[in-house]
Amino acid sequence: MHNRTSRGIRCLVPAAIALLCACASLAPNEDGALIGHAASPATPSLLIETSSPPAAPEYQRQGEKARQVSAMAGFTASPGTFLLAAEVMYPLDSNVSTDRIRGGLSVGPLLQIGFNGNHLLLGPSLNARFTIDLPSLPRLRPYAEAGVGLLISKKKDHATFGSALIVLGGGADWMLRENLGVGARSYINIAPGPGEDFFMSFLGGVTYYF
Predict the structure, then answer these.
(1) Residue 7 in 3-state DSSP?
(2) Which of 191, 193, 184 is nearest to 75 (CA)?
(3) Which domains occur in the chain, in start order?
(4) Taken in order 143, 144, 147, 152, is the CA torsion positive or negative?
(5) pLDDT in tens, 68-103
């Protein structure tokens, strides 16, 4: 009888040890999952990539980087004539840059031709222009301009007069594309000497930047 009891105990001990091991393998880990369970398939993570919105088109270039060709039409006051004008601007290395504005200096020739039935005005000049780029208004390009030149004035049945010419003015372009703008400008033309000594120019036209 004693031998049978001993053999039964010896059989139960390995079974108890195996049961304890099985229970230990099912104990929850730190995340609360049962160790020993088959791992559930990983849930695919959804990655959303965010990027900055595309930059606004660079409608404006700093003055030192953009050459300009303008063709314009308008009129003069005192005397009143129909006015055609053309201008070419070449950038210089000089520029200004702050947190709010950027600007550059350019120089080039301006030609104004005003005429009516009785009067002819021919005013070539060499002008300097300071163009301002406004980061808050990238399409707008205001500028101030000044120059010196020669005014040839001819009236019907009168002699032709020539005198020095001082040009002061300014305007603004509105960029339709990166290299094309439309704009308006006005000039005060001072010509001390014989013939016309003062007249105003009002012009509108297109400017190509390259």
Answers:
(1) helix
(2) 184
(3) 63-209 (2.40.160.20)
(4) positive
(5) 999 999 999 988 899 999 999 999 876 666 556 678
